[in-house]
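Hi R.,

Here's the chain you asked about this morning:
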Amino acid sequence: AVVSTQSTGEDLLNRGKVRPIVSCVGSPTEKLAGLVTKILSPLLNFVPSHLSNIHTHLTQLAELTPSQLEGVRFCSGDISALYTNIDISKCVDDVMDFAGEHQEDLNLRDISLTDVHRMLELVLTNSFFTYGGRLYKQLVGLFMGCRPSPIAAIVRVYRFERASVYTDITFISVYGRYIDDAYTVATSEGSAQQFFDAIGLQDPDQRISWEVDYPVSEDTFTPFLGSAVRVHNGVVESKFYRKGTRKDIALHHRSHHPLETKIQTARNFYSTAEQSSSSAELLEQSFEIVDRLLVANGYENPREFVKRRTPRKPTNKTETRVCLKLPYVSETVSCEIRKFIVRKSLPIDLVCTPGIKLRSVLCSSRPEDKPSCSRDVCKICRGLQAEEMEKKKVGEEEKKKKKKK
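And here is the predicted structure, written out as tokens:
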């Protein structure tokens, strides 16, 4: 269980609430959850408000005309505890109704929608996790670590949007939502609150409530996903943004990862900052945020570091090569092994794996689920299996004797 990132120290002391966020990898329903997710994922293409990535809203805002941006400000809304406040049975029904509307666009893999309905219901209503050595089952809301949960949440809220803001296309000039975070432009804080409340009022359980962030002035940036946006003098301006509650943790320069991985990770940060910035001045501010993040993680001159190039030997496509996986020890050891492979012209591609992570050892969410038989116990297990096979064999022989009689 982890604390919500929106919670401050004072809020945590007053409320004392934590949110269970547990990965379902390795759980009994993991395979079934993956199959249901693959079947239902194309439904997101038919949700007009869905944002496919953290930069889609910037593309949509860039398409607005000056007349649409006149007198408005960029604002965002966040649904409070969306996953917890969703009724699972109604959510499953909404997803399957939506799937029925677009059945021709789904690859059902020779499975009927009735069976998909049963599988989705089974996955969403059977979420377990261990905490403090005890086994718990989530009874209310969607499980955050379950793969179909985001799809179910997106479709459920879209049902409310379709019955409110999408009934009159002139009601909004632009609107987008990424699961529980949405944005629009409005002339005042009251109109922004009214807009988002219109969506929440469609919930029959009245459990959908919005927290609206409206800028106090035209010069104020409003954070949304990985960017901060404002409408200044009829022009949309944006820059890179990181939440203040987020710690400056990234792939450390001294970590046991290949140099290529570190370079690419740093490049991705700068690339994201560049895509989020609308001008040269704001780009420099975005780069400074990335600089501070990387310097805090051991990169002395990050902008020069990302310019480094690692030599790659051209490979012969017709040559059969073998992948050699070795645990990462250090950059020096990896370089020496690669040099030896090149020097001897061996058809080997070296892959250095990080090995067992400290997080997986100390932060396992399901320690009781993993098989951890000792050698003696395994002997007992094998003995039981042999005894069971012997009984089965004797039973089959007796059946044959009875048939002969």
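One quick note: Residues 1-6, 366-371 have pLDDT under 50 and may be disordered.

Cheers,
M.
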